[in-house]
Amino acid sequence: MEEKVLKTVKKFKLISPGDNIVVGLSGGADSVSLLLALCAVREKLGIGKIVACHINHNLRETAKGDEEFSRKLCEKLNVPFYLKNADINKLKKELKLSEEDAGRKIRYEFFNEIREKTGGGKIATAHNLNDQAETFFMRVLRGSSSDGLVSVKPLREDGVIRPLIEIKREEIETYLKEKNQDYVTDETNFKEDYLRNKIRLTLMPLLKKEFSFDEESLWETLQLLKYDSEYLGKEAQKVTEKAYFSDKRGEIKLSYLKELEYPVLSRAVRAIVKRALSVSLSKKETESLTELIKKGETGKRVNLKRKYEAFISYESFTVKEIKEKEKYSYPVLPGDNIYERHGFAVALCENHGEKDGIAVEDTEGIIVRTRMPGDKVYIKNTGHKKLQDLFTDKKVPKEERDIYPVIVKGDEIIWVPGLYKKSDMNGSCRLKVRRIWDEKRGC
Q1: Taking the model in full, what pTM does it have?
Q2: What are the CA-CA distances from residue 50 to residues 14, 213, 366 (Å)?
């Protein structure tokens, strides 16, 4: 088995010389064999430090025995041992997670904490070929994208590695028997309370008996699926990199996306959201966004996880955090008036006849504010026009209209930067607006 571990590590480039390894150690057969195998091949791979982490979830009466077994094994192997006692029941209630998800969250938080504490490196978990198959069927039954069906990857982007991913559970048990090494058994693994257990105890034996199912054949198929998935992901990345408006992380030129076929578009959407908001989309959310893009109707939007939104605005597709829009009203003073929280600055300077800005005699009575109900502008030879209609005609995105700066003198709108300027304004000074939050539209 140790030779197979070496082969897997080299094939997928899981470990580089000098890497420290944090091993997740439950005390079960899989994690015990992982720790033993890594210690055995340590010199061949040039591994730095090996440390082990054990989490006592305090869910079973036998949990304390698992903890003690793991501690003694590490003492025997001369491996530093780190322990965390966790209250999973409390955590799952606080975060509204399942017991399984709460346990996973606290495990990886602890693994990362110890990795940082011990000098960085990789986190090794004991997922094997059987786990890969079980995860595949879990995702098939629950519904998954093709990316999700690839299941457990040998190497994750965050440095989590699976050196046993090509090894069957039967091989692990044989290895431990040859080493005369015992291990603990989690009795809940034999209860069909969880979907994974039902798959392991009922579905997998049935597939092997009736259909000659073999985990290695599934693994080979998943590798082919992985290659397809990675290629489509790279194609999506190429498109999104071209489509961003300057350096704006969450705003994409709609024309680049609308013509994409679903396999590339869905991946592009997930990449855009991940880059802009650092969140992952569900299958349903991904489908909602691809439909939004394909229809391309200005003003249409989709709520994401109650904290974010995606919307179409003329030529762009945007994802952003939902923030309450704040009204404002400020008197314009001589000099440079910077309103950083609202994203613009107003400056009064000498009038040299430039086209930008608006001519005024002074700033007395001039206010910069957000729009108000009933706002109108006067257009020569046309008459009054609602500010709302002006925004629509000039294609100002809906999400900008409530925060767009409007310059008034008394009760009259004299300037809406980039959109409207009162025609009979004159004076020795010139008022200019610099919009910090959006350089696309000139002022």
Answers
A1: 0.67
A2: 15, 36, 69
